[in-house]
Amino acid sequence: MKDESKTKEELIKDLKTLRKKGEKSAVNNIIERKQAEEKLQDSEDYLKMLFDYAPDAYYISDLKGNFIDGNLAAERLTGYKREELIGENFLKLKLFSPINIPKITKLLVKSLEGQPTGPDEFVLNRKDNSKVAVEISTYPVKIKGETLVLSIARDITERKKAIKEIEELAKFPAEDPNPVLRISKDGTVLYHNHSSESLLEHWHYQEGKALQDRWIQLVIDALRDDDIKTAETEMDDKLIFLTFAPIAEKDFVNVYGSDITELKQGEERIKHLNLVLRAIRNINQLIFKEKDREGLIKGVCNSLTETRGYYSTFIVLFDEEGKIDTYAEAGLGKDFLPMLERLKRGELTTFGQIALKQEEVVIIKDPASACPDCPLAQVCSDRGSVMTVRLGRDGKIYGVMSVSIPTHFITDKEEQDLFMEAAGDVFWVYTVLKWDKNWISKPMISRKGSRN
User: Fold this and answer.
1) What contacts 427, CB < 8 A, 6 or more positions away?
2) φ and ψ of 220, to 5 deg
3) Which stretch of 40-54, 166-180, 217-231, 401-415 has the lowest confidence by average pLDDT?
4) Residues 62 and 148 sit within 8 Å (Cβ to Cβ)
5) 327-331: long-range contacts, CB 8 A cutoff, minimum separation 24
6) d(CA 297, CA 305)
7) What is the pLDDT of residue 229?
């Protein structure tokens, strides 16, 4: 045969070749196995992260109720650290009231049969003896050949409180100053109190006909999911928060409305003040960047409007003789052109002249009525109100700054204080630049104390 004719040297060479191939194959197998192990480890780490940081309480137990693992939310919910839970039995820890034990036993039997359970409501006893309402679902899982139970617990305390409040509210719907309605699954309004009439009018509801658009959809969704749905709607000058509470066994939904206008305005106020604070921070940064007053006042106007703290801003500066020297604006665009012509003639508006005579902020709630000679009056009125303040100190006046702002913020003392602070920063750096134009280029250490 062909192999028998090979010399001893040839056979040895073939053996070496085969050995090298085998070694290479073995190395490749090791590399592939290592890569597979790394991928598996990455996958396990990822799943572990999802488990640990899930918003609901996740815990794993055996079929006897002994804890094997739990996540961070489980620690927060029970008050026990994970190390305290692992190896312990929920009966020993007395996490549940004795009255719930028969119910839990039935759930364990279902888990033994491989069936998921829940969601079921329980009252959980925490480590500090406080109680919390929870909703628990369980799922039998196989881990390394062993049947375990994955349980997911959700804190429903707030939901229970909301439902209780709704139930209490429903006792006196006729006297309730807020809208209260009952709507069937086909969109028919079965009941509404007197306070609901304006809401029904807002919905364009016609008696004897079904609700339309999103409102009937909310009713359908609430009944289908057997869960509360919520919505907000603007009605006249109010913002109404609506709760659609399903009564599934009766095929209707109770709707409860509440006026959250002041709450929303409070949230908007905080948001607005934060925007103004951000603008002031930008102005402080601008102070150390700009080397001329024109660039400074333009940057200030941009900062106050780009952050959406104010709708628009303009600043006018005077020369030594009190005549208009330079100006800048932001947020007005072409609407500022008539004002620009007036400034070129050396004329200020009525509220600008008023501002020159007092240190406090001048508030113009309705610019169109209060300052009819101002070219910006109608524009500012359409957007809201106006605040104006003079830039000056110790009797010396160097200019005015004016902004337009939502009307419901105009009387806020904190709002006015922040506006004065922004004006103070502009005035300070303007006076420094006026007398020492090289100040910006000086080292930081030489600037210290110069503001005092």
Assistant:
1) 391, 392, 393, 398, 399
2) -60, -45
3) 40-54
4) yes
5) 327/297, 328/294, 328/297, 328/298, 328/300, 328/301, 329/301, 330/298, 330/301, 330/302, 330/304, 330/305, 330/306, 331/301, 331/305, 331/404
6) 13
7) 92
Long-range contacts of 214-217 (CB under 8 A, 24+ apart): 215/187, 216/187
pLDDT at 49: 76
In angstroms, the CA 176 to CA 430 distance is: 58
Structure tokens at 53: 């940081």
**Which structure tokens are listed for 151?**
């349980």
**What helix, strand, coil percent values describe the chain, rounded to 5?**
50, 25, 25
Q: How far is CA 269 from CA 114, 276, 365, 412, in A?
A: 54, 10, 17, 9
Give the pLDDT score at 369. 82
372, exposed or middle or buried, with CB in 10 Å at 0-12, 13-18, 19+?
Answer: exposed
Q: Give helix then strand counts, H and E, for the chain.
A: 16, 15
pLDDT in the model for residue 370: 80
Q: Calculate mean pLDDT across residues 38-55.
A: 68
| Mean pLDDT score, 143-150 | 86
Strand order of the β-sheet with 252-259 is 189-192, 180-184, 252-259, 238-247, 229-235
Contact of 136 with 153, CB cutoff 8 Å = yes
pLDDT (tens digit per residue) in 301-341? 888 887 767 888 888 888 777 777 888 888 888 888 888 88
Q: How many CB atoms lie within 10 A of CB 162?
A: 15
The two tokens of residue 202 are 């807002």
- CA–CA gap between residue 277 and residue 287 (Å, rounded): 15
Q: Is 375 exposed, middle or buried (0-12, 13-18, 19+ CB in 10 A)?
A: middle
Q: Environment class of residue 53 by beta-carbon count within 10 Å: exposed (0-12), middle (13-18) or buried (19+)?
A: exposed
Bridge-based pairing of strands 117-125 and 146-155 is unpaired
Tokens standing for 107? Answer: 């759930």
349's CB contacts (< 8 A; 6+ apart) are: 339, 342, 371, 373, 374, 375, 376
CA-wise closest residue to 126 among 99, 93, 152, 153:
93
Amino acid of residue 203: W
Q: Show the tokens assigned to 205.
A: 């509801």
